[in-house]
Structures are given as structure tokens and as C-alpha cells.
Design brief:
Layout (H helix, E strand, L loop, with lengths): L12 H4 L8 H18 L7 H4 L2 H4 L1 E4 L3 E7 L3 E8 L13 E3 L4 E7 L8 E8 L2 E5 L7 E3 L6 E4 L21 E7 L12 H15 L3 E5 L2 E2 L12 E5 L6 H13 L3 E6 L44 H18 L3 E4 L2 H5 L22 H17 L4 E4 L21 E3 L2 H12 L7 H8 L8 E3 L4 H4 L6 H6 L2 H4 L8 H19 L4 E5 L28 H5 L5 H17 L9 E6 L4 E6 L2 E6 L6 E9 L2 E7 L16 E3 L11 E8 L3 E7 L4
Parallel strand pairs: 10-11, 10-19, 11-14, 14-15, 15-16, 16-17, 17-18, 18-19
Antiparallel strand pairs: 1-2, 2-5, 3-6, 4-5, 6-7, 6-9, 8-9, 12-13, 20-21, 21-22, 22-27, 23-26, 24-25, 24-27
Amino acid sequence: MSIVKKQTKKHIGLVKNDAWLEPFEEAIVGRHEHASWKLNQLTGNGKMSLADFASGHDYYGLHRTADGWVFREWAPNATQLYLIGDFNDWKEDEAFRAQPVSETGNWELTMPADVLHHGDHYKMSVHWNGGQGERIPAWTRRVVQDPQTHLFSAQVWEPEEPYRWKKKRFKPQTEPLLIYECHVGMGQDAERVGTYVEFREKILPRIVADGYNCIQIMAVQEHPYYGSFGYHVSSFFAPSSRFGTPEELKALIDAAHQQGIAVIMDLVHSHAVKNEREGLGNLAGDPCQYFCTGDRREHPAWDSLCFDYGKDQVLHFLLSNCKYWLEEYHFDGFRFDGVTSMLYYSHGLGEAIGSYADYFNGRQDDDAICYLTLANLLIHEIRPHALTIAEEVSGMPGLTVKFNQGGYGFDYRMAMNIPDYWIKLIKEEKDEDWKPSALFWEMKNRRADEKTISYCESHDQALVGDKTIIFRLVDADMYWHFKKGDENETVRRGIALHKIIRLVTLGTMNGGYLNFMGNEFGHPEWIDFPREGNGWSHQYARRQWNLVDNQELCYHWLGDFDREMLQMVKNEPHFAKTPVTEIWHNDGDQVLAFMRGNLLFVFNFSPQHSYTDYGFLVPAGSYGTVLNTDSATFGGNGFADDAMTHFTNHDDLYTPTGKEWLKLYLPARSAVVLKKNEEN
């Protein structure tokens, strides 16, 4: 009798690691094959690398050559194209008329060396059937705004001496990744726009001292409206000139690397500004040259334009943009903005996710998924240690899974559920109703195969119309009772919860942690960029460092705690990779305890009840306090003796488990972290 062996189906890695995805394997494989097909098409079936393909910035735009200048632009709808500027009195001149390059849609203009000079301003004058307009070239690397007319123009940028990097090679520290989200322009105390130089000299040292190992810089790509926070990009290859020169940005990144700080960029490839004169909105009479057609062209919520990721020229533009920032400015990676908006035809608006089926129901933009996959392949081809982070809220499976396993290749996903949870909890629940079990579940609500960036709040929660955590907790009392010795109960509650919220968020992370500039010390108020409605004021578009520097105010307590909290996890080897092991929770007592390696985190969320000799089972041994939110050093009551060594109590019943009872004093509304001592 012959035995017929049952064939085991070989699953793609993403499905192999999550059997619940098996019903959707065909769609997962289809997306993977789409990206593979496009990769082969763009690279000539491997005849060149993806990095070779993504070199459009070396061809397009304005470049100095051995004997002059060359300018190129992709403008397939144009009938005539001129360069106009300081060099020809801003008039169309045959000497500056570009010529079409065969049937490519490209235009090219060569010029003698002496006609253009460093600092000259210029634009394109583009003609098309039925119209004409002045435009800033799509690939330009420098854009400036006239202080009188407020008009933007491209600028010839060819300094005699190129920037010489002091730190030529750098590898980010990711154990764990501690990100400081920042904005150069609002980084100063003064009511004005800050600069790259000021940030390097004044703010970077603060970040280093605080213990962060990565800065995420917002608003790098040029944007016409300062108040857009950098999210309405017009010139994708130009660092914003309102903060300084390209060399000054390079010096900032170089200085960060010299001090062990990685620098990632907030990359906006999810949409573009509508502006036609400054941006890509109607470069040469075709409003859909870079963008989708019909109803999909305009983003329904952002007043912006949506890229057509199905066009090879658009892929060429965006992939080249990734390569450009990595190589020209030595960025260590990117936080991709608005990934959810890219993934779904609906941009995620009203998209209800109730089951895995909702990720594979035909409402996803496969071209956008393909682009994101290729972008991650490219970035890691150029910089194997580069960091890519997806701002994605829907929880799309495979987002942070490697391409060869069927994923999209991001290194991290923003844990966007966490700040939403904190806002909801603070707004809707009384302190005595906070449930540690629900809180703990939310902190760890992530797929097993993905690394996430945990955070309590980012710039989103600080914008006008919203509130930071500290402002939700303390509100107007920050103005009247944040001087040491003058705190009222509202302030004491706010300071205690601000520390606890940060500690439990950091303590449960599985990849990295993020903080927005100033929130580490409870920066008051909100962010409101200069606009007509506030009289073009910079009052709320700055960071008041004087508050945390003033030892008479409560802010420094929060800043000091943040610094010690980060140092604690940095001292623990492989903290982010260490499993989070629940030790105990009791919703009635509002107590939570969990371990990571040798660190024991214990939280008492109760606003009223302190507990004496509160016991739970832990690995046998002795424990010492390494961090206490209730320490007087951080504005707490100082009720516990942090110098005490805590010994576990033997119980015959639990001898086989290696666990014993640890009994602690837990003051109300406090948290403590203990470390298990190494036994001799």
C-alpha cells in the first residue's frame, strides 16, 4: 500500500508569520509581484540598480559643466520654454530658449560659463497651447522669497567651495531609537523665524544633554506658506531658505552626527501644494503632469494635490528625491508623512477597519503601495542602516515587514493609537476610572511582526485648536501656579500624570520613542504660526526655553525627569527588544506592574489610595530603585525611600517558579522603576 504525502502549501513570509492573513494571500502576493514587476521594468530587468535609476536630480535642473551650464526640465505639454532672470532682465531671450529633446518631453538649454553667477535669481517662462506662465523649475535645489514682493524664485547656488563634511560616515543608534521631533523655525525663544545656525548652536546641545539619539526635522522641503508646518511642499529638492543656506543645513546635520545624533527628515510625498507659480500644480499647461486625473487630483481634506504613483516619471521624481536627500545632505532616513492617505483611494477618510478583509477589499491604491515599497528598497540599497518610519494609522499588515517576506519594507510604524488614547482618557475618564488593564493593552496594541515608535504626543496635538497633555491636565493654572512652592492641586496632579504617562509609554515601546520639541518639559500653550488671523504674530510659533532654564519654575522638574527616564532605558542593553512581561494588574486598585529584562515597572494610577506592602510575584532576588516619579527631585512628594534595597520574600508554594513576593510602598498617583540586582 502506498502512502500519499499531503503537500504543505508554501506561504509568503508575511502570511507564514500570521495565519489569519491566509485568506488574503492572493492579494498580498499580487501586491508583491506588482512591486517586483515595476522594479524589473525600471531597472531593465536588473541591468542597473534602483539607485542608478533614481538619479534624475543629476540630469534635470540647473548644473555646472566643465565649460558652462546646462538646464533640463521635463515638460511634455510645453511648446516653448525659456529661462528668465537677473541675467536677462527677466525677459524672454533666444539665447535662453530651451530646445526639446526628441520625443522624451524633456527640454534642454546649454549656456556659457559667464552668463550665470552664484546667487542669480531665475524662473522658467513656459508656453503651452492656449497659455503661458512663469514657473519655478521642478528640480531646482534653491528657492528664495523676495522680502518686498514676497514672490518666490529659483536661485543659482554654486558656492566657490563645496561643504566639506567632518563626519563622513555615520550609523544611527537604535537600541533604542529616541527621537526628538523638531522644527528649526520655531526652535527659538525669540518671536521670529529661527535658523539652521541657531538650531545647531543653541538647540542641538540641549537635545544631546537630554539624551535623545535622533532628531526628526520638520519642514525641510521648501513650502510657500510658513503656517503649513512644511506639509504643503512646492520645491521638493530645495531645503527651505527661510532657515538659511544649504551649507548651514549640512553643518547642522554634520554637527549632529559628530555628537552621535541621527538626523531623519519629515518627507512629504503624500501630496503637494496647489500653487502653480511656485509648485507643480500646472507646470506646463497640464494640471495632471505629476498628479492624478479627475476627482482624485485634489485631496478632499488637505487642499492639496495627489501624486499619480502609476506614472514612471512621477516614480522617477520621487525616488530621485529620496536618494538626493540621503546623498547630498547625509540624512539618515525619513519619516514618511501621510502614508494612510497614500494607501487608500479614500485617503483613509471614513475608512472603517473592522477586520483583515478591510485591508484587501479593492479600496487600496496599489500604485502607491508599489511606490512605498520601491522607496524602501531604494533607501536601504543606498544606506543599509537608514531609518524609515511610516505615519500610518490604519494598521496595514506588512507595513514594517521586509520586501522579500511580502511586506513594504519600513523599519518602523508610528504608534498613532497611543496619543489618541491618552487624549480620550484625559478628556472622558475621571482619574479614579482609569483601568490599568485597558491602558496596558493599548500601549502594546501592535502586530507581533512590526516595530513601532511609541509617543504620548507629537506636533499634531500641539497645534492651535488642540491641546498638549500638560495643557489638558493643568490648563490656565500653568500661568498662575507653576512657580515652585505655589503649586495647587491641579498643578500637582498635572505634574504627576505627565511623568507617569511618559514613563508607561516609553516603558512599553518595542522599537523607539518620540517626543515633540518642548513637550519633554511641559511647554505651555499651543502652536499657532503667523497668519492674518493672529496679526502675523510669532508669539505661539516658538519654544520658550527660558521656562525650563528657570529653576524657580516647575518646568525643570519635568525636563529633569525626562532626561533621567531616557538614561534609564539607555543603560539597559537591548531594551526595545526585551519582551514586555506583565507581572500584575488590578483595575480595582489601579495598579500595574510589568518587567523588561531586569527592570520592574510599577504604576499606581489611583488618585487617592496609597498602598503599604503591596505585593506581587517577581523573580527572586533583591531590587533597587532607579527611577521614581514621586521623587522630590522631580517635583514629587518624596514619600518613598529610594535608597532602600527591596528583598523578595520566600513562599514555598512558588519555589518551582523561581518567584517570590516583592512588597512595596506605592504612593498614590506615582510610578517607580526598580532594577533586579545581579546576584553574587
